[in-house]
């Protein structure tokens, strides 16, 4: 079964500092990978997705992620954190051939931004 | 374009009762999925419907059920509520682009079971 591991349930960064949220997946076949963000009392919003077109994926709000097959990783980065980035971030994976929409999510990483 | 709409947003029930949650997908989307979110278990897949047919189901007991109507609106039902069913229930719709497609989530229905 597919799985996603997000290292660090809580990450704190200073405003203006680099944001790095880690995600590793388990897979024997190429997956499709997603990062979602959830603000308090809201649903999930897609930040970016990897679908094998390019290993470096740019998303909304200045976020990007790099797919590294050799490391089975899909870490999320942003060069300079903003206060509005404080939220919970979820990495998710789906597999081709399942014939249906089913995402497997990581446990999430709560990002705090310190002024 | 209106987003995914879930009703009600908040509800409180007692053990043993049942609850029905509603989801209206984005216009034109034919796939609707349901997820349960809890602090302990995180986000877990419940089921997915496409053109009124359940295509996939997660590992939840039979107390959890759902359906989809011809207009793609979906409902999920939980019978004989237990304390552990307290959670945020998220509905997501998609446009049918296959496994690479994006899921659009609603704001959720927060269920509290007392």
Structural notes for this entry:
The complex is a heterodimer of chains A (115) and B (114). In chain A, the strands form 2 sheets. In chain A, strands 2, 4, 5, 9, 10 and 11 form a 6-stranded mixed β-sheet that branches. In chain A, strands 1-3-8-7-6 form a 5-stranded antiparallel β-sheet, with no helix packed on it. Chain A is built from no helices and 11 strands. In chain A, 0% of the residues lie in helices and 56% in strands. Chain A starts with a strand and ends with a strand. With 114 residues, chain B is mostly beta strands. In chain B, strand 5 and strand 6 form a beta hairpin. Chain B is globular, with a radius of gyration of 13 Å. The interface between A and B is medium-sized, with 27 and 26 residues.
The overall average pLDDT of chain B, rounded, is: 92
> How would a textbook summarize the main sheet of chain B?
7 strands, mixed
The whole-angstrom Rg of chain A is: 14 Å
Oligomer category? heterodimer
- Biggest β-sheet strands, sense, barrel of chain A: 6 strands, mixed
Percent of residues in helices of chain B comes to: under 10%
Strand content of chain B: over 45%
* Beta content of chain A: over 45%
The residue ranges of chain B in which pLDDT falls below 50 over 5 or more consecutive positions are none
**Span of the ends, CA to CA of chain A:** 41 Å
Structural class of chain A: mainly beta
Count of runs of 4 or more consecutive helical residues of chain A: 0
The DSSP helix count of chain B reads 0
- Count of β-strands of chain A: 11
DSSP strand tally of chain B = 11
Morphology of chain B: globular
Structure keywords:
heterodimer, A: 115 residues, mainly beta, 56% strand, globular, B: 114 residues, 7-stranded mixed beta sheet, 4-stranded antiparallel beta sheet, 53% strand
């Amino acid at each position: 079964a597919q799985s996603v591991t997000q290292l660090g349930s809580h990450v704190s960064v200073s405003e203006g500092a680099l944001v790095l949220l880690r995600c590793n997946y388990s897979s024997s076949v190429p997956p499709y990978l997603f990062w979602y963000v959830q603000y308090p009392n809201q649903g999930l919003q897609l930040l970016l997705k990897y679908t094998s077109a390019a290993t470096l994926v740019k998303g909304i709000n200045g976020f990007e992620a790099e797919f590294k097959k050799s490391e089975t990783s899909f870490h999320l980065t942003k060069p300079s954190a903003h206060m509005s980035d404080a939220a919970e971030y979820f990495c998710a994976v789906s597999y081709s051939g399942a014939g249906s929409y089913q995402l497997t999510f990581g446990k999430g990483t709560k990002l705090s931004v310190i002024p | 374009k209106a987003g995914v709409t879930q009703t009600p947003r908040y509800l409180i029930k007692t053990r043993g009762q049942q609850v029905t949650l509603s989801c209206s997908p984005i216009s034109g989307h034919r796939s609707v999925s349901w997820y349960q979110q809890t602090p302990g278990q995180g986000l877990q897949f419940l089921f997915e419907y496409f053109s009124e047919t359940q295509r996939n189901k997660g590992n939840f007991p039979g107390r959890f059920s759902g359906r989809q109507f011809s207009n793609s609106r979906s409902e999920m039902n939980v019978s004989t509520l237990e304390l552990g069913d307290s959670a945020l229930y998220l509905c997501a719709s998609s446009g049918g682009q296959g496994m690479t497609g994006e899921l659009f989530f609603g704001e959720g229905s927060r269920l509290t079971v007392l």
